Every structure is written in C-alpha cells, then in structure tokens.
Amino acid sequence: MSSNAIATGRPQVAPLLQRWYVLIVMCAVYAINIAARYVVTTVFEPIRLELKLTDSGAAFLTGIPLALFYVVCGIPIAWLADRSNRRNIVAASLILWSGFTVLCGLSVTYWQFLVNRIGAGVGEAGATPPSTSIVSDCFPAERRPMALSVFALGAPLGAWLATDVAGGFAGAYGWRAAFYALGIPGILLGLLVFLTIREPRRGRLDAELGDHKASASQSLAFLWRQRAAYHVIMASGVCSLWGWGLVWWTPTFLLRTYGAITGHIHLIGGIAATVFAAWIMGRPFMLDPRRVLWLLGFVTGCATIPSMIAYWTHSLWLARLMFWAYVPAIYFFIGPCMALVLNLAPSHMRSTFTAWSVLVGNVFNLIVAPQAVGLLSDWFGGTHGADAASLRLALLVLAPTGFWATWHFFLAARTVVPEMKRAAGYSSA
Predict the structure, then answer these.
(1) Which residues of 348-362 are buried (b: 16+ CB within 10 A; e: fewer)?
(2) Rounded to whole angstroms, how far apart are CA atoms 103 and 100?
(3) pLDDT tens-place string over residues 286-331
(4) What whole-number distance in Å separates Cα of residue 269 and Cα of residue 276?
(5) Which one of 62, 191, 259, 339 has the minimum C-beta count within 10 Å?
(6) How many helices (H) and strands (E) does the chain have?
(7) DSSP run (H or E) holding 252
(8) Please, are residues 153 and 27 in contact by the beta-carbon 8 Å criterion?
(9) How far apart are CA 199 and CA 353, in angstroms?
(10) Closest CA to 338 of 229, 245, 413, 177
C-alpha cells in the first residue's frame, strides 16, 4: 500500500483500499480519543480517595476542566480545519492530548492533575471535527451514514480500552499506569496519521469542489437556518447527556452497590450495535434520511426504559440484563448522527458543524451530567455523605432524559430532506 492514503486533485472516489485505510485510521484516532476521555471513570474511586474528594469534587476534577477547554477550543480549531490542512490538525491534536494523558499519570497533586486534564481537553478538541470531515471526502453522501457508523466503532473500542485495557494496567500497577497505557500509543498513532494520510481535496465528492471559505459567523448563521441540523445536534447531545452521562457514573454505582462491574458490555454490545448501525445504514431503504431519524428516535426511546430500570432495581442480575439492553443503544446513534450533520452542511462548513455538535454533546456529557449527578448524590446523601443509595437516586433523575432525545429526532425528520438539498445547493452556489 502506498504511504499516501489519499490521492488529491481528482474529484472522484478514492480507490477502495485507500479510503478504507483512512476510515480505519480515523476510527483508531476516535477510539484513543474516547479512551483518554473516559479512563478517569475507570480509576475514579482511587483518584477520589487519594485526593480526598467528595463525589462532586471528583466529578469536577475529572470532567469539567477537560470539557471546558474542549468547548472553548473546539470551534476555533474546527474553523481552522475548514480552511487548512485537516490531517495536520488531527495528528498534532492526537500527539498533544496523548502527551498530557501521560502527564496525568505523573501527577501527584490536585493542581497537577487539573492542569494536565485541561491540556488533554485542548488537544482532544482538534480530533473529531477534522476527522469526520476527512472521512466525508472519502465516501459519497449516500454512503456516509455507513462510513460514519464504522468510524463510530471507535466509541465502543475506546470504552473497552478505557475499562478493560487501561483498567487492567491500573489493577496491576496502580491508577497512574492507566494513563500511560493510553498516552504512549496515542503519540505513536499521531505519527502514523502524519506519515501515512494525505489531505484530500475538500468537497471533491459533492456538487462542486469545496474551494469556498466561510467565516465562523456565516457557518453559524447557516447552521441556525438548518432546523434539522439543529435538532440532530440537540438529539445527539441529549443522547450523550442520557447514555454517556449514566455510563460515566455506572462503574462507581456498581462497585458501591454490588461490588461488581459491567464486564464486556461496552466491547461486545457496543460493537454489535455499531456494526448493526453500519449494516442497516447501508441498506437501500435507508437512503431516505427521514427513515434514519425515525429509527434513531425509536431505538433511543425504547432503550430509555431499561436505563431507568437498571438503576431502580436492587437485583444485580436484572440490572445487568437492563445494561445489556440499553448500553448498546448509546453507540447506535453516534455514526448516523455524525453523517446527518455532515450531509446537512456545505463541504466548507463541515468541521464547524461537527464542532458545534461535539460542543453540545460534551457540555451535556462532560459538564452537566457528571457534575449534576455528583451534586445530586451529595445532596441526597445529606449529612452522612454520598453512598450507593444517594447515587442511585441521582442516576434515576438523569435516566428519563432519553425521551427528550427521541423528541428531537422526530422533529428533525420533518425538514431534513429539503435542508439536505439546500446544503448541496449552497456548495454549488
């Protein structure tokens, strides 16, 4: 295989092996991104105990610093990605956040860990928007839901890396080793991206090659007019609030309540759900984006019910059964939502559209959900402090929000077809 994974300058689909190589490498980048973000949930209790923190204090340290700088830096980096070399941004971001992940493992004080989580957040902000934009220039519009569903395999793989692989290192060598196990391979992967992937011609598979450049205000104004894009972004964000917010606290909840963990649900269930999403999005009857949105709404709404039961029951076997019913669903929506956002954007605004989607998801997922659950758990715990019972109540407050996401999916279906045509027309205007 050529060391350059994409040929540039020709407005046609790249050769099969080349575009799939790019897709697989971008999937690996996404996996490291997810793993570095969520490894703190695996070692949450050791960090909390060593630094003598409350639930809300530990939630702030492990989630909000990364999320705030992810949010602050995400839009400017995405704007730059819409105007410059996306490959370089992905590679540099990966090396940056992986380096700070290693430094998290070297931290010995609260403030050192805080600063290094901030550094990781700055780096992670440059990953997903340019990665998905690159993938969109390897696959035509009708194949993007399938391709982005394959890309989304990085989510369950990343969760597995954070829980099983990094968790195994933490169990054998202490919690700091979990950060080394993810940071060092991430640096090496960043070098691979830089050396083996070439920047594709922007918008080469659309109506016209994307030589346009849009300001941040122009991109935001166009996004606001795309009501389907707004609802898809909100649906995806609320799914992150619901599913990933629950998952953030689930290892701690299970250890406090049952002295158990979830096992391989993320790896097996997440991969199965993502592969199924990729398969069904590739079927001819799913070419209508309204059917994609109806399916996403149906799956999310149905999965919300077992997510409520999982934290309500006091039976470990029933809780595990409910986890197997709802945890896969939090992976099902990722790829199709990414593809819908990309197809609702002109080619020269795709990184910015994706950045807004990532911003909303991370505000809900990394700021609102962990901190709100931590505060509620401390409040329900009262004077005796947070425990399994108080955390259960806090999670039960969060669980019904899956119905909110379902509502946004159905609203997006109303206008998605004409607005995709508008985005394609804007590219060729």
Answers:
(1) bbbbbbbbbbbbbbb
(2) 5
(3) 989 999 999 999 999 999 999 999 999 999 999 999 999 999 999 9
(4) 10
(5) 259
(6) 24, 0
(7) helix 245-257
(8) yes
(9) 19
(10) 229
